[in-house]
Specification:
By secondary structure, the protein is mainly α. It has 14 helices and no strands. Helix 6 runs antiparallel to helix 11, helix 9 crosses helix 11 and helix 13 runs antiparallel to helix 14. The radius of gyration is 27 Å and the shape is globular. The two termini are 12 Å apart.
Length: 368
Amino acid sequence: MGAYILRRLLLMIPTVFGIMAISFLVVQFAPGGPVEQAIANMSGAQNSLTQRVTGSDTGDFTDAAPQPANAANGSTYRGSRGLSPELISRIEKQFGFDKPPLERFGMMLWNYLRFDFGDSYYRDISVVDLIKEKMPVSISLGLWMTLISYGISIPLGIKKAITEGSRFDVWTSTVIIVGYAIPGFLIAIALIVVFAGGSFWSLFPLRGLTSTGFDSFPWYRQVIDYFWHLVLPIIAMALGAFATTTMLTKNSFLDEIGKQYVTTARAKGLTENQVLYRHVFRNAMMLIIASFPGAFVGAFFGGSLLIETIFSLDGLGRLGFEAITSRDYPVVFATLYVFSLLGLVIGLISDLAYMWVDPRIDFESRQV
């Protein structure tokens, strides 16, 4: 087991390197980087000032003598005409673009190995502190959504498999399919309208993870307030995952129940519970465990973006989206690095959970 874990950990190094290298390469060819945005802002401010001073539109003058965007100063950046080369160099140095791409990539990897992500381009805070600031929201949404979804879906899926075709199975399947068909953001809006002061009741808070004055609350009131803020976002996020996991569990158990070893176990006189939980359970759960890493990472980050926006929750999903749109590359690469590491670690934990469910699995003899 120790050798397998070591091999998997060593395999994470080239995997993360490949992810970061491809992402860095794509960014080099993406238009509208931080230097271009700074140049555009300066050019826009300069044009606005010229218009206020002259009282006319400068577009007539520029159209009269068209020339390439970099003709005035030799810059390769679009929109840099009229800005001095010294100013362009200062902007490049400010954002770290004064070095060759290969050197910048090497420096980034070296810093990331030490978990030094630098500072945000547009916020007066380090990336590590920024991630720590947003992490509680994402942990709360991802963790509780996953636990509640799996905690309800697995027993319900087993019950549906045992009672397939019954009235209970039909009605629960109908509810599950309807819940799966409705987008999460639409459910979130409906919950706000009905339960958060939209048009009916004002039972739950509309924004944030805690109430004003949370730090002065006694501990039991802090716990209540924390979960009270999570009720609506978790419901909105969990319905889709709840439906998927329930049906996956049901189908996995039905597939195992129909196999020959179940018939043999019953013929030996084992009770239904013994057959179900001693033999079927560990085989059927393989598929559920295999889907856990993707479900958890998706709920932890990408799946929470719309929910964070609708409920005014400032988490990692929203942070990553805003960083991409504003070209805040230190935040973009840092979140990508953290997400990749977390996904790989959860994948390893998922493999180890296989052994816990079915001790017959031998990791030592496997090739990674």
